[in-house]
Design brief:
The chain is mainly beta and about 90 residues long. About 10% of the residues lie in helices and about 35% in strands. Strand 3 and strand 4 form a beta hairpin.
């Protein structure tokens, strides 16, 4: 199974934020059935975001975010990192 892992960069520290096999995520078919039980499929040109793994320590603002997808059999992984600018709450 491929492993999805992410880290939150908070106060300059790298903290594990999510980790687990992608097989624990809900399948596309399950999501469609949960939200459109009578449809069975999505209409053409419909986009559905499929969610993610549970987070460790709750959803929170952070300085940067790192994500990687690892194949533990081959040892290969793909990763990405981006910085985050939290905007003030104008509400």
């Amino acid at each position: 199974d491929l492993i999805l892992r992410s880290h939150a960069i908070e106060n300059g520290e790298r903290n594990l934020y999510q980790e687990g096999p992608i097989t624990t995520m809900l399948s596309t078919e399950d999501l469609i059935h949960r939200y459109y039980p009578d449809l069975g499929t999505l209409e053409a040109n419909t986009l559905m975001f499929c969610g993610t793994l549970a987070v460790i320590g709750g959803v929170r603002p952070m300085e940067a975010f790192e994500v990687e997808l690892e194949d533990p059999v081959s040892g290969r992984k793909i990763s990405h990192q981006y910085a985050i600018q939290t905007l003030p709450n104008e509400g």
